[in-house]
Fold:
Amino acid sequence: MATIKPFRGVRYNPQKIPDLSAVISQPYDRVRHGLQDEYYALSPYNVVRLIKGKEEPGDDDQHNVYTRARDFFRAWLDEGVLMREPRPAFYVLHQTFTLPDGSTRTRHGLIAAFELSRFDEGIVLPHERTLSGPKIDRLNLMRATEVNFGHIFMLYPGGGINDLLEEAIAGQEGFELRELFEHDVVQRFWPVTDEKVIAAVMEEMAPRRNLIIADGHHRYETALNFRDEMRARYPDAPPNAGFNYRMVTLVSMEDPGLVILPTHRLIHSYDRLDGPAALHLAQEKGYFTVQEVPDRAALEAELAAAEPSHPRFGFYDGRFAVLTLKDPAVLEKLLPDRAPAWRMLDVSVLHELFIERVLGIDKAAVERKENIEYLRDPQMGYEAVDEGRANFLLVMNPTRMEQVRACTAAGEKMPQKSTDFYPKVISGLVMMPIGVEERL
Structure:
């Protein structure tokens, strides 16, 4: 069963921080391209100092980004910049945003403490592969601070829970914020402490299984590792000890605001094949049909017309082309042990056939990001190619939610960067202490 509980969160004190927008941030893994400096400039109390602080000369085992995060957290509590919720609470998060077609959507989230369980228990399931580096980093932060600062974004089957929460927050003002990077997203946030509502939500969630991690795979696996360490250190700690739980944001798979964006691939520092040779080889091997198109609008139109049985992606090296999988049987022959749902993912087709077997960039090089950069905004990729900073841009369609479900049901982990759920669940709204003395 899926066990969730309310918790006494640590929040920024609005009496001390009247502009809460100045202290929130993207998740730690999105803080790049100079964004860290911008958060630092926003406020001396921005949460980025806790989730991804700056390294300093002379850092060692005793003084480093993790110990500074711990010290900042404790100091901000002492100063009253951060405050502890007096009663256990669930937290409601509404994120309202506009899509490229002009339509507006709102995604409804529930922030709760989730009882950790291993993937083989079938309660929560991963959908993407993870790497060791980020898990070591997050584990070091968790050891130093014993606090969850960021969220696991988790999807649950079925509905009903949002209705309970909407009743609970009706007529309450809550907080309204905008985060620096995704500034167009309106973030609205409410603590819910009504015990009857909390009990009803817990009961409604309990029988559900096959919850899917949408974002935060590294953080979830890190939480499992931390839990196991703490259990070994404190074998007499009760089941409701804080370290047995992880702060998550839960969203229904049926939520109309659930949106997945594509993640495009930029190929750079690559000298084996030029664009025409790569396209020729893609056809010669019998993997793809290649259709040249006159401009970006035509490329995007062809991508939008893709059929699930024949995945396709766009190619740009100064000219535009669309590559469509010629015969799905080729992947069945090359990868017979993979589930059909996995073989028909756009990212599987792209990586297995084009990046690996046409361009000759193997999985280890992809994992090291030697010749590849991942982009949410394709415009950055077009500009990099035009300015000679990259060889070509591979333009993707978004992965569909039914594909995520199918791969997860088949026990398949999707390739890295298969999904980009938009918007991100921001850091800094609430934090959850998980030390040995905490009880849930």
The two ends are 17 Å apart (CA to CA).
